[in-house]
Amino acid sequence: MIYKLVKGVPAQQLREAGLGAHFAEHDRAVYPADAAGVPWTAAYIQATGDPIADLHEDLAAEQKARATYERLIQLTDDPGIKDTLRFLREREVVHFQRFGEALNDIQALMNAKTMY
Question: Which residue, 5, 7, 20, 80, has fewest beta-carbon neighbours within 10 Å?
């Protein structure tokens, strides 16, 4: 989506839109970063080895992504971009539901009596 939005846009126009530094370093390539330009890092991935804690972290991540998509939808007036963002937002909702189901399953297994 990002590539399509900047494909063929002149460098001067990218600079005027505040994307000059990105263009200088990455051209029009996708470079994962947050809205402030902070690059993505694997340090963002949380894993403790505790399935309950990790699933709660996954649930929170899905909700944060959903909220981000909602705000991005508010920032654009392009119908095609809005449709894409709505699809991605709905996908986060489904992921949240599946992680919730997995959490319920894990909790049930951990609370089950084991007979030997």
Answer: 7
Same domain, 81 and 112: yes
62 is in an annotated binding site: yes
Q: What is the rounded end-to-end Cα distance, in angstroms, of the chain?
A: 55
**C-alpha 7: how far from its chain's center?**
22
Q: Check whether residue 36 and residue 86 sit in a common domain.
A: no
90 marked as part of a ligand binding site = no
pLDDT 10s digits, 41-95 = 988 888 899 999 999 999 999 999 999 999 999 999 999 999 999 999 999 999 9
